[in-house]
């Protein structure tokens, strides 16, 4: 599977900057959550979403036997080692020890990423050591 052009992924992702936070939404300029941002970028980079996303919990501390987001991403995107993730990669963050990875971001540079954050909406911020340590999985958007 060939990966999409990272510069194109980043340009499209940055077009979402300032989109208000809205749980389980995915409309550029209207509202989205972190997964909604990734879904919206997917639609512009790859095409229609391959399957509907069922309702999901906002609990970053949720535990369970399945890494649901990672398992879903593996069906559609090439997985890469977290250490190899660079600009244009979709990263999944584990926000609490022993929790499943439930926060999503898109790397925009070696030390920056975009994500949707409650009360802030879609923002670009530094990939600090604290954020970097939380990366559990990384994937590349496939080419259309």
From the structure above, extract its key features:
endopeptidase fold (from Nostoc punctiforme), two-stranded antiparallel ribbon, six-stranded antiparallel beta sheet, 144 residues, 4 helices, alpha+beta
Topology of this protein?
Elements: H1 6-14, E1 26-27, E2 31-32, H2 34-45, H3 68-74, E3 79-80, E4 89-93, E5 103-109, E6 112-117, E7 121-126, H4 129-134, E8 135-140
Antiparallel strand pairs: 1-2, 3-8, 4-5, 4-8, 5-6, 6-7
Helix pairs in contact: 1-2
Please outline what is shown here.
This is Putative phage cell wall peptidase, NlpC/P60 family. The chain has a single domain (6-140), classed as endopeptidase domain like (from Nostoc punctiforme) (endopeptidase fold (from Nostoc punctiforme), Alpha-Beta Complex). It has four helices and eight strands, in the order αββααβββββαβ.
């Amino acid at each position: 599977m060939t990966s999409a052009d990272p510069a194109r992924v980043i340009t499209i992702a940055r077009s979402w900057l300032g989109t208000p936070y809205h749980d389980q939404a995915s409309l550029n300029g209207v509202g989205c959550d972190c997964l909604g941002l990734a879904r919206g970028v997917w639609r512009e980079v790859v095409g229609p979403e391959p399957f509907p996303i069922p309702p999901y919990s906002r609990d970053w501390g949720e535990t369970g036997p399945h890494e649901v987001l990672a398992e879903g991403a593996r069906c559609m995107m090439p997985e890469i080692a977290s250490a190899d993730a660079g600009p244009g990669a979709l990263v999944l963050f584990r926000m609490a020890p022993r929790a499943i990875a439930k926060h999503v971001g898109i790397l925009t540079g070696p030390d920056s990423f975009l994500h949707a954050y409650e009360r802030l909406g879609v923002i670009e911020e530094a990939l600090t050591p604290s954020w970097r340590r939380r990366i559990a999985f990384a994937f590349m958007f496939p080419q259309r």
